[in-house]
Amino acid sequence: MTLRLLLLSGGSGVGQNILAALGRARERVHLVATSSVSDEPALFAFDTVRLVPPTKAGEAAFERCILEVIAAERPDLVIPCRDDDVRYLAALAQREPSLARRLLCGNSATALAVSDKWESYAFCAARHLPFAPTLVRGSGIPAAEFIRVQGFPLVAKPRRGWASRDVLLLWNDVQVERALARPDYIVQ
To answer: How far is it, in rounded angstroms, from Cα 145 to Cα 142?
Structure first.
């Protein structure tokens, strides 16, 4: 029996890691990828590639395409390869319970927690799980107090960033204030 996997954003680093992890089992798996980029070289390793609009282009258009791909390809499992895909699949599982068992995702609250660094911190803090102390503008914690407790150096990064993109190393109070003035940045 051939296992049918659908990887949303299959050309991503996660998609490539899944391909590599399959190793010899790859022969027993039919791999379908979606992508909003038609010329991504990594996509050539898949059996089928379906072009879809970017998630940010509009959820309705994206969902229409994804539901068409699921209906046509009949995957046993749909795997999200980017944070946006995780959030989308969690919401889809709530809207379409008949698909939920095939969607590799948790609920919407968990999907939000894993895709937003501030939400990750809040999720872990509420459950007494270890996580890097985190500061966001408007959290009620003065930056000076956070700096006094944590010391330097600190790191600033986008709440929804990935792959260490746009990460800043902070060495003084002025840099912390500038980082917190950026929209959707956290300091750790």
So the answer is: 5
First to last CA, the chain: 48
pLDDT per position as a tens digit, 29-84 = 999 999 998 888 899 999 999 999 887 767 788 889 999 999 999 999 999 998 88
Q: State pTM to two decimals.
A: 0.74
Q: Are 35 and 11 in contact, with CB atoms under 8 Å apart? A: yes
Q: Which of 103, 111, 160, 163 is nearest to 136 (CA)?
A: 160
Alpha helix ranges (H) inside 46-188: 59-73, 83-95, 108-115, 117-126, 143-150, 173-181
Contact 100, 93 (CB under 8 A): yes
User: Position 183: which residue type?
Assistant: P
Return the closest-CA partner of residue 55 out of 37, 31, 74: 37
Q: What is the largest CA-CA distance in the chain?
A: 61
Q: Exposed e or buried b for every residue in 28-37, given b needs 16+ CB within 10 A?
A: eebbbbbbbe
